[in-house]
Amino acid sequence: MVASELRALAPAETLSPEDFAAQVEALVLRLGERLRRGGFGTHASLRRGSTGNFVEHRPYHPGDEIRWLDWRVLARSDRYRIREREHESRLRCDLLLDRSMSMHYPLDRPREAKLAYAARLLAALAALAHAQGDSVSLYLADDEVEVLPRGAFDALHFAGHWMKGDPRRSGHTRLQTCLESLATLLPKGGLLVLASDLLDPDPHALLPLRLLRTRALRVVVLHLLHPEERELPALGLRPFIDLEEGGELLVDTAAQAQSYARAMKDFLEQCRRACEGAAVDYFPVSTGEDAFDVLSRLLAELGRART
Amino acid sequence: MSFRHPEALLALLLLALPLWWHRRRRVALPPYSFSALFLLRRSESETRLRRWQDPLLLALRLALVALLVLLMADPQPPRATLPTTRLSLALVLDDSFSMRRLEGRESVWQRTLDRAQGEVAKLPPASECSLLLGGSPPRALAVRRPCAWVRKRLRALATHAPSRGDGLLAAYRQAQHIVDASSLHERRVLVLSDWAAHVDFPTSAAQPRQGMALRFERTCERAKQENAFIESALLEARSAGAGMRSLRVRLNPGRAERLVLRGSSGFSWAAASLSGQREIVLRLPEEALRAPHPAAWLELEGNDDLADDDRFPLLLREEPALQVWVLNGAPSANPNEDEVHRFMRALLLAPRERGRFQLRSVQAAELERLQADHADVLVLANVRSLDARLREQVLSFVEGGGGLFFTLGEQVEARRASAEWQALLPARLQPSLGMPTARPLWTEGAALALGSEASSLDGTRIQRYFPLSPLDKTAQSLFRLEAGTALWVWRKQGRGRVALLATTLDDAWNELPFRPGDLPWMSRFVRALAGDPRFPRRAEVPGTRLHLPRLAGVSVMEVIDPRGGSRVFTLERQAALNLDTQTEIGPYRVRVGPSARELHEERRLAFTLAAPPRESLLKPGRVPPSSTPPAGPGRIEQAASDTPSPYLPFLLFGLLLLWLGEAWMRPKAENRGSA
To answer: Distance from CA of residue B452 to its chain's centroid?
Structure first.
């Protein structure tokens, strides 16, 4: 069976934008309440600037403004030192949603699909960031990266664009290509949140994460997996069809459960190592978890500065 | 265990059906779309062998099919309990020509060998086995040898073409002697044959000796009676018109539609359509007789099970005339008074269908060349005496196959002739007697059959004769006088024959030359005296002992069989080459010469071997009764068809159990979506 036939099998009825927006709004409301109670810390700018918060001294170089000289130090020690302060600015937040075909799993239950779950998380994050006054950009990735227009952070708009990730239109996961093109696209600094199942057979798919880190970006990888991906569903003997490639494999789930669990464990470990190697925050998420809990944990994690 | 319908076991191929069904059902399951298939592929190799869903259900279905097939094949209990004690078995195989016939794709001979192999294989270890062939002459190929050795000989016999005539009875008796001499307690004789009508085996011969089991089995299934074959072919000596000759063919036409005479190069010399005739005359041009190699084939066109007798080899050549040498003891210028005039005239006027006579009146001194010039018959008519050297020549001539005819007369002195020809004469001569009233009578049962001429010769007046007394034990009387005294006697001497007429050859002492039956009788008698032709004439059957005379100046003879195989013989002192091992049907060429390098074709010595017509009669004969119940296939089948298989209830019960098990497991498997 080819992928196009498989996509035709997918139910045409998916989550409506309105339902999706309502879910996100409810999520944001709960998160906002938590924010107001001070549950999370604020984030600091990565750039030095002119605010009052002292950061460090550095030697004077020709071209530096005279007004930033620390006169007290000059008077005491006759040395020219520049007083560096924090630069307070709007945080740039980039959200990348993997909308490849594998994210539609399970295909017959669109409300449980990883894509819907990831979209909910990102939409909530976008709404929160927007409310905080940060700059938000949204990207959709499968074969290539699609940049969503400004204002799509609004849940309804986001849902409208996410709906473009209809199974019948989705492509293959090309993480490496997408991350490489994103590295050239994004300006230096900021936060990049990547929501994907990382199910790319290419073992070098996550290598470009290092490239993103060189752009002074803080990268958070939300690795989404459905519970039935972690453990094979008990289906007996069934022909399994690859969501992306369309290949067929006759699987005895009872007989292969253990070996699959081992393969999945290895895969997760491989992803974790790849992220740690690139100094990227790795955040495994099961779609069976409550999205609120996940986001709470994520925001708490984001509140901590990465060492 | 054996099966009544072993061909039904082929249905075991149906076992593939449940496998296919199981797999097909499995593949028809609704597909499940999955995202991490590449991870599953990594783990697939570990579980490839464990992917049969519901193996118990599959096994039940396979067993169900296998049991059904077994039921169709109808298993039977073992045919016979294998003997556990050592025994001595003698196998007698009929290798007569009729065993060549095909049944299906297999010849009866091959089937016989297979049966014999099976019987030997069943023998307990350390048994002994004998193997005899019932062809003519019967041959013992193995006498109380180990079974493995006999099986090897049986395998070698697969290339043997049976055609040796019928000597089954003699072989059977020999087998009885062999088995009887065995030290083993249990003894058996198994005779395998097609038991066609030609098999000369009286039922009374099938009497087992003490402690011996006899078994007679027919190794063919169908009784074939319609078989086309050519019985004989005779090229008539006289011309059949301008440049044409007649070939008289006797045949059993069967379903054959056409008879064709083909030369050795495949050229068709003559042909005739058949419509049931048993004798047919083909006319062929005389050019056919002048072909370099005279071999030709008569062929019956049509199919039957025994194809080898549908072709009959023959030699298209003039038969050499019988050489009759006459030594006249009382020659006369007046033909009416000449001793041999009427005799020679009778031979010259004899019908030429059976061959010509070449008469030669010789002097005594010429007898030295009797053998060198290939004389067939020597007539010593009223010869007083011959010197010892010539008598030796004559004796040698007779011993070598020649015919000698003594006739008496006034020149012959009884006592002297008896003394001189003691080694040759079949009776001692007594002084001649005048008996005007004596009349000869044909001796009933004489070796030489008398035809229509008997009536005309009976009662001929004999005026004078030499009483013959005593007669040699081997001599036979052809004519006797009313008083019982022998008048015309003959006997075999060496390979030749000697005849003695106790009166004159002419009409001086008797009236025989005046009787109308004298002429045909005399020609028949001289032919009989000549015996077997010096050169091969008629087609012989395989296994016949042939004597090819050694021609003057010949030391090496090469015999080339129909397939082109050559055998070279160097002759030292032999007067003839004796052949008896050839079995291939067809024309044989002979090349002769003083040495192996100087051989030339000798047309006169060429000979043919044809299928024995008697053995082409496939009418089934009677199988002698076995002394123990035979375990042959036919009897087993008959017994098996009468009684139901003892395994039947168990098979049906097993079938029921399997069916119930399958019915119980199927819904569960269906619920799991795998059946």
So the answer is: 32
Round to whole Å and give the CA distance between B675 and B665: 9
Q: How far is B49 from chain A (nearest CA, A)?
A: 10
Query: What is the ipTM for the molecules in this complex?
Result: 0.76
- What confidence score (pLDDT) does residue B635 get? 39
- Nearest Cβ partner for A263 among B30, B32, B39: B39
Nearest CB to B35: which of A243, A249, A255? A243
Q: How far apart are the C-alpha atoms of B606 and B559, rounded to whole Å?
A: 9
Domains of chain B: 2-77+645-672 (no CATH), 87-224+618-631 (3.40.50.410), 229-315 (2.60.40), 322-530 (3.40.50.880), 546-612 (2.60.40)
| Element of type H or E holding B503 | none
Q: How many CA atoms lie within 13 A of A263 on its CB side?
A: 21
For residue A151 the two structure tokens come to 């204002």
Helix axes of A17-36 and A114-132: crossing angle, nearest 10 degrees: 50
8 Å CB contact between B76 and B288: no
pLDDT at residue A205 greater than cutoff 70: yes
pLDDT tens readout for residues B326-344: 998 888 877 777 888 888 8
β-strand pairing of B186-193 with B212-218: parallel
Which CATH number characterizes residue A173's domain? 3.40.50.410
**Tens-digit pLDDT profile for residues B117-150:** 998 988 888 889 999 988 777 888 888 898 888 9
In this structure, how many other beta carbons lie within 10 angstroms of the beta carbon of residue B44? 19
Range of the domain at A80: 48-86
CB distance B34–A264 less than 8 Å? no
Which tokens sit at B98? 């009729």
